[in-house]
Amino acid sequence: MSVKWYEKSGDLGDIVVSTRIRLARNLEQYPFPSRLNAEQRKVINSLFEDAMKKGNSTIANDFDFISLEELNPFEARSMAERHLISPEFAARPEGHGVILNKDNSIALMLCEEDHLRLQVLSPGLALNEAYELAEKIESLLSETLNFAFSQRYGYLTECPTNLGTGLRASVMLHLPALEQVGGIQSLSKTLSKVGFTLRGTYGENSGALGALYQLSNQLSLGIDEYTALDNLKGITHQVIEQEKAAREKLDEMAIWDKVFRSYGILKNARILSSKEFFEHISNIRLGISMGIISDISIETVNVLSNDMQAATLISRYDEAKDSANRDILRAKLVRESLK
Amino acid sequence: MLCQKCKKHTATTQVKRTINGITEEFFLCRDCAAEIGFNGFINPFSSAGFFSSLFNDKMDEKSLSPVKRCPKCNSSLSDITSLGKVGCAECYSVFENSLSPLITKIHGTNHHCGKLSPSGSANEEKGNNFKTLEEEIAELKVKLNEAVESQEYEQAAVIRDKIKEMEEGK
Ligand SMILES: [Zn+2]
Ligand SMILES: [Zn+2]
Question: Using alpha carbons only, what angle is made at residue B112 by residues B106 and B115, rounded to the nearest 5 degrees?
């Protein structure tokens, strides 16, 4: 199995788990996806598949078209857990497909809310690099496909919130100290006033699972791509500073205790629910970031954070279908990986 | 309310799923929502709900008759507002007058700046569909000046009448 993008760590990788770039595009001559049936979606899927293949052959060889109809539901959900496709998309396989590269860092979701949702994922903070890669693929596709575009509104999208550049850039941040000092809500309020969204990656607004938060730009019209990326980068650095300041405020001994308790549990537990796993792996990440733990790498934390999710376990291990067995298996895999 | 899956914990997450137009609602606790995986996530890119909520407090359905439809995808404005989704690229010009203020409300502007489409940037005709009346008038005034300066008075008169007509039609 080839190394996946999320099994690596990048710039500021202790706090910035990953970067995601998404470009929305639509084919000029077809109605937007909500007006298409499964057969029509398949026609559009194959147009994109052909366009990828016609392009530069070295790129083309790296990609596979995956029909969601041919996956079992757990495989599709597992892709959603790893952020390759959206959860809504995974739940509706009929006529849906995705073009995916080998290390899973590039995913072309077809006929989701737009004909094309081109996503580039990268470990750590890498907004410009990820955007440039997305732009390269988009340009390649536009050699053979005509994307709906107007001088006034830019790239036309099914939902007007994505008009303009069609760009949504986001970073996944680990903010355990800000969460603990109760700073998330006011921060997210402030950010939304200046055009950014901060919300929990998993679960609802009150307390995100594993203290993981998604920070993204809200606006795509009237702002060019690089300005939007620069703004997000600036805001990301400010949030990182705030998280670091919050860490200074916490009682040092209490942090050490919390980190090592989690270390003990993950190394020894025999039954591990997904919620418990996320809580403890969050403390491990904090411990690595603060120099408390040195024998576990951020890469290991990233691998586990992806692989220990329910559907991903089920798609790989038959015995994981039963939830009690799954928790036992999760504990075993975590122990082995931290040995 | 108790979680509908484990029936043990308090339900905190409302999960909606729409299949073939039928929307089902579930109430789950945080653990079950997370365990189920995809239903518990918040999709950071899902904005249709937000968009249709903008419409709901803005639009008066009664004022929309007689029903105008997009010639390409057959959507009416009320189709677009109830779904929170635009039907096709053409809809943006067909329903320009209704959509433009909402777009401005969402983005604080209604002018793209950023990457230009290789085909779109060369296609002047397409761009014209999206000019406002004011912009067209401003362009005509430039043309009028040019015509006067080059002493093409007949042409200038035609342009002047056109401007007058457009200004009255506003
Ligand atoms: Zn439950
Ligand atoms: Zn239309």
Answer: 130
Distance A36 CA to ligand 2 centre (A): 12
More confident residue, A101 or A201: A101
Tell whether the torsion through CA atoms of A32, A37, A42 and A47 is positive or negative.
negative
pLDDT tens-digit profile of A232-281? 999 999 999 999 999 999 999 999 999 999 999 999 999 999 999 999 99
Q: In A, which residues are within 8 Å of B126 by CB distance?
A: 149-151
The alpha-carbon gap from A154 to the nearest alpha carbon of chain B, in Å, equals 5
CB-based contact B40 A203, cutoff 8 Å = yes
Distant-in-sequence, close-in-space partners of A110: CB < 8 Å, separation ≥ 6:
A41, A44, A45, A48, A96, A97, A98, A99, A116, A117
* Cβ separation B38–A147 shorter than 8 A: no
Q: How far, in Å, CA of B155 to CA of B147, rounded?
A: 7
**Does the pLDDT of residue A78 top 70, yes or no?**
yes
Q: Could you give the CA distance from residue B129 to residue B90 in angstroms, rounded to a whole number?
A: 10
pTM above 0.80, yes or no: no
Contact at CB, B46 and A113, closer than 8 angstroms: yes
Amino acid, res. A26: N
Strand partners of residue A154: A150, A164
Confidence band (pLDDT; 50, 70, 90) for A113?
very high
The nearest CA of chain A is from the CA of B153 a distance in Å of: 32
Cα separation, A160 vs A293, in Å, equals 46
Which ligand is closest in space to the CA of residue B13? 1
d(CA B151, CA A276): 82
Cβ–Cβ under 8 Å, residues A213 and A173: yes
Q: Which pLDDT band, with edges at 50, 70 and 90, does A58 fall under?
A: confident
What mean pLDDT is predicted for residues A205-212? Answer: 71
Tell me if A153 and B118 make a contact (CB, 8 A cut-off): no
What is the CATH T-level fold of the domain A5-246, as seen in this structure? Creatine Kinase; Chain A, domain 2 (3.30.590)
Mean of per-residue pLDDT scores for chain A: 93
CB contacts < 8 A (A, B): 203
Instruction: Determine which of A156, A213, A220 to mutate to test the interface with B (most B C-beta atoms within 10 Å).
Output: A156
**CA of B160 vs chain A CAs: smallest distance (Å):** 26
Contact check, Cβ <8 Å, B47/A162? yes
Nearest to A154 among B42, B93, B112 (CB): B112
Q: In chain A, where are the structural domains located?
A: 5-246, 252-337
Closest of A68, A67, A66 to residue A102, by C-alpha: A66
